[in-house]
Queue: 4 jobs
Job 1
Amino acid sequence: MEGLQETRTVPRFNGRNPHPDSHTCPLSEEALNLWKIMSHDLRGSLISIMATLKLLNRGYYGRMDEGVENQVKELLGRVTQLIGISEECLGRALSADGHLDIRQEVLDLRKDIIHPVLEELSSEIKDHHLRIDNRLEHVPASRIPIKANKVWLKTIFRNLLKNAIQYGDSGGTIAFGFEIRGSSYRLNVYNSGKPVPEGWRDKLFTKVSPMRNNDNRSHGMGIGLYLIKRIIQKLGGNIWYEAKEHGSNFVLTLPIEAH
């Protein structure tokens, strides 16, 4: 806040023993389990609220006047964002002890993952005047099956999309690509703008990777990409960065679920 003359170091918590010179503190097993339960239960409650708001928005309970309808749409957007936050918390809790707990199920990549993440971040996309080029919409199949963990896979695409919004051009383009390569899906998230400086590219998937966006402000995005790479490798895939002349491209592979 403005006007504060004194700053304090706030300890950062994780589930592992801290380095002697660090400011991190270990979470007890009880606290970590409580974090997991609260994140899971909060997500479940928010999903129920979102379902009711969607029914209201579709007129299931009767017509609403314009003012009420706008309020419902705003609430739906806020709840969608809160679901994303709760999933981020759940993902962090599940990985806090250094072990990724990935229970897999058969999902529809387009319906269960990409569409919800785009909806969740729609206000940020609108605020930055971005154009979304979603190539998955051109896939003729009615569904794109993939065996993965829903929370983790949404975390992957949420983080990649957030990075594309934050570091890309305002008024630019974000594109989702899709190909089938043998027994794997090859996907990518591209954003127009300046590519990552060459000196930082080999540090992108490490725990700490400070970056600068177009307004030259420094941000850290390494912990997100570090966790993303671990998740993707746990799912049997891989991820890497490709610099383009007028943008950045993150490419990932994931195994195909048999039809």
Job 2
Amino acid sequence: MITSNNNFLRPAYLEVDLDAVAFNVKNIKKRLGEGVGMLAVVKADGYGHGAYPVSRVVLENGADSLGVAILEEGIELREKAVKAPIVNLYPEPHQRAKKIVEYDIEQVVTDLKLVKNLSKEALKQNKSCNVYIEIDTGLGRYGVLPEDTRALAKKIKTLPNIRLKGVLSQFSTADARKKDFAYKQLRVFKNTLDDLKAHSNHIPITSIANSGAVLDIPASYFNHVRVGHLLYGLYPSSETSESIRVKPAMSLKSRVVFIKEVGKGTPISYGKTYVARKKTKIATIPLGYADGYSRLLSNKGEVLIRGKRAKVVGRVCMDAFMVDVSHIAGVKVGDKVVVMGKQGKDEITAHDLGRWTNTFAYEIMTRMGKRLPIVYSQRSKGH
């Protein structure tokens, strides 16, 4: 078992259960079956969980490669001795080709200029560089139009020291209840692949499935899927199935650092947005919007103390917020506070925090501030 010691850390921190990540990877792999590879998406510092610790665990438990969003994320993993394939899932300016090749990053491309620069750099460095064509089947963010894919593939194949390793696309509505558009994208992707194959293009990796599609659209698996949200134990939305069992890996915890009783009419926090209607016991929690606990949770959010919910009162400050603990018997300074996670029989999820702030769980997890220490726990290792 490895556990980071929290005795001397600030009384507000993240806990990441690496065994939960391992559990999630194994269950996803069971669903995929033989012959379907998995790219584990560890961008945005592993969705706030820590890219390197997560990368180590997912690779030990069956992931085939890692996905990042910017070159620097890939470089950071390489500098920590990660040897597995790392795919930069977003196009880069052609001027960054040198570092892409130097650090053996596999690169998604949408135009020939970047590929030509990668070819030149690969020749200079006596290396080869793997690239993936991204097809825009309907998301409208990045990607080659389906009808232009074959021409780009043909040109890529003529460039020295470049290998076309894969073709991928991205669903727009795989996490929605109504999946008509997702199936339309799937047809476009399949037709484009058929056209490539008909013109003697061998594509080792074909991938369009994300977490929502892994749950609900098995026909989209092809021979590779890209999984982010499910790795970390959260379903992409309330409209997907929960057909694969996963466990949330992240909790956000703190402690009560100050308690006071205030009389009727006493304002709490900036702007006097909350005024006590009666004698009220107020607890201060040393966590604020600089740590990712949104100001939008002012007078809306809830935390768990002694197994009971306590409501946020007044505005969330940069470094602290206050809760009403009048109904919680025996509450005292030092009591544990669960801001996200389980305590007793109750649980506050990232989805709850997202609902209270009119956003979603992805944003909640990835915006946790750098000031928050991360405490890791792991009992098992590998398979």
Job 3
Amino acid sequence: LDGIEATEQHRREQRRESGFDLVALAGYTNAGKSTLLRRLAADVAVDENEELHPDLEPTAESEDRLFTTLGTTTRRAAMDRPVLVTDTVGFIADLPHWLVESFKSTLDSVYRADLVLLVVDASESVEEMREKLVTAHDTLYERNEAPIVTVLNKTDLVSPDDLAEKRDALSSLAPNPLTASAAEADGIDDLLDRIERDLPDYEHERLVLPMTDETMSLVSWIHDHARVEDVSYGDQVTVAFEARPTVIEQSRDRAADLPIPESA
């Protein structure tokens, strides 16, 4: 677990430096997190790719057993904004005391996320769901600062009336939850819209740059890391874009380092 965490921390730092928002899927094992990740991903389709590159773990597994997802699996979300979604180790009921701290160490992806999706199996009883929500909240709020959105998954296994009753009964623990069926690809668009809405707001920036080869490289970098609104070329290059605050800061630093043409 220590080795996995060290590797994951390095990856998270690289992804954030690249301008990605980080979204973490949290919840108990068998709540459907891995299947949900595959529905949200831009580069992985459910039931595809398993046989293409088994050595590269092309997608998170979805099996009914403990510790199927050990470490994390991360995929880019199918949305215009650069967002990475990470499937984390699932919470486990009645975890032995000697494993509790080791388990908590695997949640660093959750604690460092910009948004947490707490996935709950809606086919379970209200009592089971309440108990798991309380435990998950106690663990997440211990160190987490990001917003938490509850996702009631597996709605294909629940009648509309039962689902409505469960939402009402759990409203104090899960206000304004989203409902989804990862297995049936139901509710995925609403979930992507919620991710977009609840992530930190982008900031706007406008850079006026010298017309140089180095500037062209910077403009290309901005296209890769931000949402470009307009680029105009003349004696100078003007770039208008919006991005995470960290990306805007990096773009300013890169712009300050550009050489000034000798003719200027």
Job 4
Amino acid sequence: MYSVDAYQIAASISIRECKRSLTWELLFSDGDELFYKMGNEKFVYIFQYGMVGFFNHTLEEKRTILDSIKPFCKGLKDERFSEEVNVVIEPEKQEVSFNKVIIPFFDYEAIRLIVLNASQSVALDNYFDITEQLLGETNEHTKYLEQKGKLDISGNKLKRFIGRVLNIKNEISENLYIFDSPDITWDNEALSLLNLELKKTFDLKDRYRYIHERLEIIKENLELFKDIMDHKESSRLEWIIIILIVIEVLDMLILKIF
């Protein structure tokens, strides 16, 4: 039995720098991912969005690999989200269940799919946590609006908050291809079926939709806050204009009288 472990170790990892500096045997690469063979039946998968997936590594080996990757990371995380899956080889059998995957023979492409889906599951855990924090902050402002009839956030802070939400939405769209299938599954029915079963078992699509829906709720609230703030600013400008007109009229009257 083999173990698959995936960890969110950073906010991002420079794929270009890793590819340039790491001397391991590279089996697959694109602009966002690197899949290396690390020895006999050992692999490591590096993702641009701060994920690292391991296949069949000891704890000490994982620590050594992570130490090699850390120089290319931004926003290292102390508390790491993780996922663990066991892989079993049984001839003429392919089956995916919770925390266990059975494949008919040792195939590094099948292993890559397993590590990929486990890594995306961990990434969703991370984005879920971020989304819940953003929703909690939004709810605090909404409750204050309900109780006081006004917002407790300034224009600049609101703009930064909106920026955070939009960046998270963009990151999820760019980094996770939950609804797409890797190229290796297009012409291989067994790998295509394995990929679909992995997505189903990890509940990737429903979790992705849930996060997306929560972000939409947050976005709608922030747009309402912005409308309230714009209306308040518009009212302030109207009063300034009225006051200026009154001053000008008074000035004209004073000139006529005196």
